[in-house]
């Protein structure tokens, strides 16, 4: 029953990060988790990086090699692998955990990596710098607050894409509802338009029975793709 066949140590490490009381505490947990992170998420069958990269690639106009992408909360580089496989070559990453960044650096997939605690400080990038921005897995209860959306938009070029994910498991539903309100407000204000909101049933394995979708042993999640609205040219007409 409980833990859905996952090793207890994996369940414990995942739970600890989600429970982490304060941000410094959580970042310390991520630092300590960095070495085991990739094998743990493989055990979880964590599909978000693959699903997000596939969705972004589908929306993104060719050519991809020259496009500049920012991978926010990049972790060890799982999203970069998936983007790289799909022809994206100019990847920048930021993360709040130095331990995770060290792993990401060792992949050789990023042109630039910076330490940045999103929600506490602005992104280390000028306005309208990126063709696309991804935030995969970090938008959740006790992690990156939904108030960061305008900062993500700030560094995105007009016409550029934003690829965001969140989980739909019970303990994240309040956060997800808040996120969707914030996403909708930005859409109503004309900041961006929604291209995709794809609910995915088998997002990753549940670490606890009560989180699992209808007893499947998995939790569900969602991929959102938005396009930043182009700035109108005033000289026209």
The proportion of residues in beta strands is: 15-25%
What is the assembly state of the chains in this entry?
single chain
Task: State mean pLDDT (0 to 100 scale).
Answer: 92
CATH homology superfamily: Vaccinia Virus protein VP39
CATH topology: Rossmann fold
Q: CATH architecture, please? A: 3-Layer(aba) Sandwich
Q: State the strand order across the main sheet.
A: 3-2-1-4-5-7-6
The global form is globular
- The count of helical stretches stands at 7
User: From the alpha-carbon coordinates, what is the Rg to the nearest angstrom?
Assistant: 17 Å
Instruction: Summarize the main sheet.
Output: 7 strands, mixed
Low-confidence regions? none
Given helix and strand content, the structural type is alpha/beta
In short:
The protein is α/β, with parallel strands linked by helices. Helices cover 36% and strands 24% of the residues.
Structure description:
This protein is α/β, with parallel strands linked by helices. It has one domain (8-228): Vaccinia Virus protein VP39 (Rossmann fold). Helix content is 36%, strand content 24%. The chain is built from 7 helices and 7 strands. Strands 3-2-1-4-5-7-6 form a 7-stranded mixed β-sheet, with helices on both faces. Helix 1 (8-19) runs antiparallel to helix 2, helix 2 packs across helix 5 and helix 3 (48-59) runs parallel beside helix 4. The longest helix is centred in the N-terminal third of the chain and has 21 residues, at 23-43. The chain is globular and about 45 Å long. The mean pLDDT is 92.
